Amino acid sequence: MTRNTVLAFALGALLAGGLSYALAAPRASMDDAAALTDGYGHHGGGMMRMRGAALPARAAIGDLRRIERLYLIDGRAKDLPALYKDVLAKTRNPIVRTYAYRHLAHAQLKPANLDQAIATLKQSLDEDLARLDKAPAPERQ
User: Fold this and answer.
1) Residue 4 pLDDT class (50, 70, 90 cuts)
2) How far is Cα 62 from Cα 32, in angstroms, rounded to an integer?
3) What is the pLDDT of residues 39-61, one digit of tens each?
4) Which residues 6+ apart lie within 8 Å of 110 measured at CB?
5) Domains of the chain: which residue ranges?
6) How far is 81 from 100, CA to CA, in rounded Å?
7) Between 2.20.25, 1.20.1630, 1.25.40, 3.30.300, what CATH number should domain 53-134 receive?
8) Which keywords are on file for this protein (predicted)?
9) For the chain, how far is it from start to end, CA to CA, in angstroms?
């Protein structure tokens, strides 16, 4: 057999084994995923754990991402900053606000408005720090 044939067989066996494992493995529940992420969807042991209260935030972000995609498909990227500002005016949810601030700053960078993007991220940081000051101190073990 040629080297390419052997590699093709090995790759096929690897993929078949991985697929059978993936199909046999139990699906993780939403609680399992929540226990592994912090409130922003990052993996690790953050102070802010996703719980039932975070599910509406995830739904809102999902809707926002779909709207973003439609704006981009329609060539209306210039309208995205107004969308993010509207979201920021309508919610106090820290997860949604952080998402909106990050994407607003990214949209502000597109026409190379660096000062405006920096100001947006500083405003987001100020809100995050204020929220941290109100949060209870982590317990030491």
Assistant:
1) low
2) 20
3) 444 443 333 445 566 788 999 99
4) 77
5) 1-26, 53-134
6) 9
7) 1.25.40
8) Signal
9) 60
